[in-house]
Amino acid sequence: MRIFEETESQVRSYCRGWPALFVRSKDSHVFDEHGKSYLDFFAGAGALNYGHNHPVLKNALLEYLTDDHIVHSLDMYTEAKARFLETFRDVILRPRGLEYRVQFPGPTGTNAVEAALKIARKVTGRTTIARFTNSFHGMTLGSLAVTGNGRKRHGAGVPLEHTLTLPFDQYLDGSTPDLLWLRRLIEDSSSGVGLPAAVIVETVQGEGGINVASPEWLRALSLLCSEHDMLLIVDDVQMGCGRTGPFFSFEESGVVPDVVCLSKSLSGYGLPFAVTLLRPELDIWEPGEHNGTFRGYNPAFVTATAALDEFWRDGILRDTVDRNGSFVDSELRLIADEHADAGATVRGRGLARAVAFEDANIAGAVCRNAFERGLLLETAGSDDEVVKLLPPLTTHREDLDAGLSIVADSVRAARKELA
């Protein structure tokens, strides 16, 4: 580990909680240099929904590279891009009645968000973006401006402006209609708040603590945006690609956003890949007005196409996520019941699940104990008070059962050491 201590920046973080040298991975397991196996309930922060080194995706990538196909192409036309666009249109968009234009903004989720914010301002001519408490949208300055986490915002070093903060669903006391605040602000000419260009929202806040917006709340938000000519941007970077069950996390609500941001598991293989989806009438970019050197990464096109073909031409994966999500939820509720005196509560949808504690120290101790027992977990929430579970969607039931058993043991051990 000496090379990392001597050479790598202090900004590194995940490795501090998981001090192991990882060398190999397969399905829902990663292995360190000593051959120890760890169950992965982190899945690359949601970038590995189909597990590690899925053979269908791996073989498609190896064949593409072996035959010397195009790897780097900026936004030139390539066969790999054409195949991805055709498959995405036919497998994802058309069956859902969606007619989005697909923009390739750059390789990561924050690139997709930056493009969404820019096009919203360009289309409307307005500058303010409304965002929600406990939100997370990325680490570049525009995305960071609409992110709630105070520690991450402080790292910007400059003012993060032109945003309006709103309470997320159930952020207040649970009885107050949260969207009334936004409606009053934009309809009262003396509120001092101008009409936002757009509202950006996560249907399930991942980094914010697995906070789930209800379908009713999302529909009300969509209606409010429509009534006042504000664009609705859904950030589906972490919760898209099946994490909550359907391909898009907003499908259950019936909402059709104006703009959608996708990344993380879009490539299916952990390769960097992001898209910004726009309603056709919003696509008013001038050629090259928003660009980037790595906005068309062909190996990611290849694995993304293979993933769509393998997992989304039928409804089997969605059914699996729904079924396994219910199983995880029921097991976590048993854990929460056992630790009700610590204020343990369960949150989540699909295979984005969590246990929250009143004392943030418990969550951190749970994750440390889980690592020692061979399970990768991370914390989330405003004070890291939430133990977040993001297992690959393809995780076998016996692995889910084994991982949840480790979670239960780790909570007991954490509470004992903190007593």
From TrEMBL:
It is an enzyme of class 2 (transferase). The keyword Cell division does not apply. Keywords: Aminotransferase, Pyridoxal phosphate, Transferase. Pathway: Amine and polyamine biosynthesis; ectoine biosynthesis; L-ectoine from L-aspartate 4-semialdehyde: step 1/3. Pfam families: Aminotran_3. Its cofactor is pyridoxal 5'-phosphate. The keyword Zinc does not apply. Its EC number is 2.6.1.76. PANTHER family: DIAMINOBUTYRATE--2-OXOGLUTARATE AMINOTRANSFERASE (PTHR43552), DIAMINOBUTYRATE--2-OXOGLUTARATE TRANSAMINASE (PTHR43552:SF2). This is Diaminobutyrate--2-oxoglutarate transaminase. It comes from Phytomonospora endophytica.
